[in-house]
Amino acid sequence: xxxxxxxxxxxxxxxxxxxxxxxxxxxANYRQVLRDPALRSSILHALGFIGFYSLLPIALGLLLAAVxxxxxxxxxxxxxxxxxxxxxxxxxxxxxxxxxxYSTDGIVNQALRAVxxxxxxxxxxxxxxxxxxxxxxxxxxxxxxxxxxxFQAGIQKIDTSLYEAARIDGAGPVREFFxxxxxxxxxxxxxxxxxxVIAALASFDVVYVTTGxxxxxxxxxxxxLIYRLAFTNGExxxxxxxxxxxxxxxxxVVLAISRITRExx
Length: 265
Known about the structure:
Blueprint: H1 2-11, E1 14-15, E2 23-24, H2 28-35, H3 37-69, H4 77-84, H5 91-101, H6 107-114, H7 131-156, H8 160-168, H9 173-184, H10 186-201, H11 205-210, H12 222-231, H13 236-261
Helix pairs in contact: 1-13, 2-13, 3-7, 3-10, 4-7, 7-10, 8-9, 10-13, 12-13
């Protein structure tokens, strides 16, 4: 893993089209990454996806883990299995499926027409306003099952005597959740947050298949832009520089998450 990353750093110091001999560029490619609005906006889009890929799935996963899983984690096993299915389906297949669902005659617009909301129908993935949200919600759907399973596993290790003590003190389900379940899932929340944030920042498959970064650059993320720079535009050096910046950003975010969610001895 380290050697390809170091080689990527080396290539980022050259202007190279991937075929002919390259020329030394120094830090010029990094300056391009920091100054080019398109490159900067792709990083901002990836950061914005943290809300869809991470925060929403974690919040919904905590809620569903408490409702579906319960303390024993054995209620509604079929629902748990269905929600986890996106984790075992290739993301390319997920992207193709949702691209059809979001199309003009897809199931999303059909559902809106069925309830009389024809005015809300649109080509979701071709809309400059809604394409980003539409792709983000796919990420929410994909990551929700993973968060649910992680939290259910965490709930099972919480000492049941804590729940009994909370009930004796008169705690209802909501207070029990915030006083016992949530603190007991600190480590699991850290794991889920790390995995989902990495998925958000390194997103590629779903975006590439559904919108390709469009319309315009409204859904462009670093993963798709790296691919386009390297294999379409022949700017391998710039692609490598963006890849290095992205990997450094992911490392910093993951380090921050690990420090925040670390359990105190």
